[in-house]
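Table S2 (continued). Query chain:
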Amino acid sequence: SEEPLLQLKMKSLVLDVVHNIDVVDQLLERRSVGGTDWVWRKQLRYYYENKKAVVRMHDASFEYTYEYQGNAPKLVHTPLTDKCYLTLTQGMHMGFGGNPYGPAGTGKTETTKDLARALGLACYVFNCSDQMNYQTMADIFRGLCQTGSWGCFDEFNRIPVEVLSVVAGQYPQAG
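Corresponding output:
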């Protein structure tokens, strides 16, 4: 039956509309009148330029990569979601990665996966353990580099400090 799929589509549309109404309310409240206004620039926005889809947030710009991920359930958009998106996109714009930090169960992994989906990128989640060694990490990084995918490392703190030290020394050479 198409009923569950239709429900998922409707939920996604409702969440998008609610978020868009909130953005318009913020723009009206601040009397924003241009594309340079902070309230507008801090939003994740899509453009079509030079026959390419581009995703922008503040001064960061990314080419949309069209990785199909299915009709996944959407996250509820909150101010914290926007701040996390902004922090991650600005970090990537400056050539860094990202490390959402906070208590367990607060949505760090889901937010990272949702941002990857918004950019059309595949995101693979790895549950780290004390059994991971530098070769395991090298293999994961090699695969991520070859595919252009994101890696989300849950429980990263479980990896032994000795392994992290080796990985940190080799990371700039991984690409």
